[in-house]
């Protein structure tokens, strides 16, 4: 059963983040970090993101909002790219970040807007 969760998680990570966010992360894992990559792949993307009641687009939107509120711009950057793959638009990302600014704090929102702008520019989304 665990192999199924890992395979599903790896497939979703590849679809959302490409090789750099999936295979490269796993290949670069050390003995110390390998358990984290396994947890992220199996539990997060193989199980949680695969649950039936929320679609991938909504999960991406929620994830960006939570990461913005937590002040995690590097993770916002990564998940903006995944959100684009899951059908979230540039305008929706902006509205998510504005919403998070109100509930999560303006300093976190400023960092998150900067990270999202970088990710959108890298993805060449106007």
Q: Which SSEs are present, and which pair or pack?
A:
Blueprint: H1 2-21, H2 23-27, H3 34-45, H4 56-70, H5 73-85, H6 90-104, H7 106-122
Kindly describe this structure:
- The chain contains seven helices and no strands.
- The protein is an all-alpha fold.
- The chain folds into two domains: 1-52, no CATH class; 54-126, AhpD-like (Up-down Bundle), CATH 1.20.1290.10.
- Helix 1 packs across helix 3 (34-45).
- The longest helix has 20 residues, at 2-21.
- The model has no long low-confidence stretch (mean pLDDT 94).
Describe, in short, the structure shown.
It contains 7 helices and no strands. It is mainly α and 126 residues long.
Number of helices: 7
**Classification by helices and strands:** mainly alpha
- Shape estimate: globular
The strand count comes to 0
CATH top level of the largest domain is: Mainly Alpha
Q: How many independent structural domains?
A: 2
Mean pLDDT comes to: 94
Strand content: under 5%
Succession of helices and strands: HHHHHHH
- What would CATH call the architecture of the largest domain? Up-down Bundle
User: By CATH's scheme, which homologous superfamily of the largest domain applies?
Assistant: AhpD-like
The CATH topology of the largest domain is given as AhpD-like
Q: Distance N terminus to C terminus? A: 42 Å
Whole-angstrom Rg: 15 Å
Offer a few descriptive terms.
single chain, about 130 residues, mainly alpha, AhpD-like, 2 domains
């Amino acid at each position: 059963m665990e192999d199924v969760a890992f395979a599903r998680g790896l497939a979703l990570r590849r679809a959302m983040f490409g090789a750099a966010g999936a295979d490269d992360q796993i290949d670069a894992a050390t003995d110390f970090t390998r358990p984290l990559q396994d947890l992220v792949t199996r539990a997060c993307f193989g199980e949680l993101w695969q649950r039936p009641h929320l679609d991938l687009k909504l999960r991406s939107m929620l994830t960006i909002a939570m990461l913005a509120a937590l002040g995690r711009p590097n993770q916002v950057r990564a998940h903006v790219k995944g959100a684009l793959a899951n059908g979230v638009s540039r305008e929706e990302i902006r509205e998510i970040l504005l919403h998070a600014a109100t509930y999560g704090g303006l300093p976190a929102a400023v960092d998150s807007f900067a990270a999202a702008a970088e990710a959108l520019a890298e993805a060449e989304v106007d």
